[in-house]
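Late entry, evening session. Most of the bench is empty. Finally got around to the prediction I had been postponing all week. Sequence below, unchanged from the version circulated by S.P.
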Amino acid sequence: MPLPLKPGYNFHYSHIYRPARFEMPAAEAYTNFYGICYMLRGDNLVYSPDGSKILHAGDISFTPKNIYFRSTSMSDKPRESILIKFTDSMVSDLIKVMEVEDFNELITGWQQDFHLNGHLQEKILALFDEMEREWNSYNEYSELILKGLLHKLILILLTECSIKNKRRLQSTAPKRDDCLINAIEYIKAHLGESPSLQNTAEHIHISASYLSRVFINRLQTPYSVFVLNEKILYAQKLLVDSEMSMAEIARNAGFSSNAYFSDCFKRITGIAPSRFRKAYWQGE
């Protein structure tokens, strides 16, 4: 699951390699950051509350903030992609010029996934290469440089691709699964109570069996796994942003005991909560 951006960082660059048939074990959440993913090779099937989509080599995709998704391979070929994550502060000047509230609003109405060809592909790859070099030699000036490169990337994508990727009419936008959205909102608001499938279903006025099927069909993730991952994600934020004790964090994140919290956290993230906090506070 995606970790929060490190304290003091508003940007992250990743060059990702996945073996053939790799699939995410559960749905992940982009919380306070956005993403842009460029597929270099392989095929990627992505599930989200808004539906599913397929990304092929040469495709680039915007990921809005506050979205859940899960991806899996579409073939027996390995996958390679570039993923950048960034917060509002990295695009604050850009969205002010574009006269929108945030990056989500900026890309609303645009086709958020499209294929790059020829000269445009070369131009985008050159920008990513420059970002990677700057990220790998990060210093006190790097955020400013990366911000400029990010602005250039976004403007190229929104202007040069706008000819064949017109603003979508509201009627053609993919239909949201409102019961899933409502369920996720309820879960996030009641994590400390460890909301059951039955309780969540009753709150949004549908049957538990139907809600269970919605999580499987839309996110390819069982309800219980989704809730557990949400608890871990919230615990990560508390570990980074607060000085709460482990027992307090366990209780606030909806775990029955500190020991159970520690076991779940280590199983999912591969590191103990105390080591996770230490690593982030030390900027490792």
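Two things to note before I forget:
The longest strand covers residues 11-18.
Strands lie at 11-18, 28-30, 34-41, 44-48, 51-55, 59-63, 67-73, 79-86, 113-115.
Will write this up properly tomorrow.
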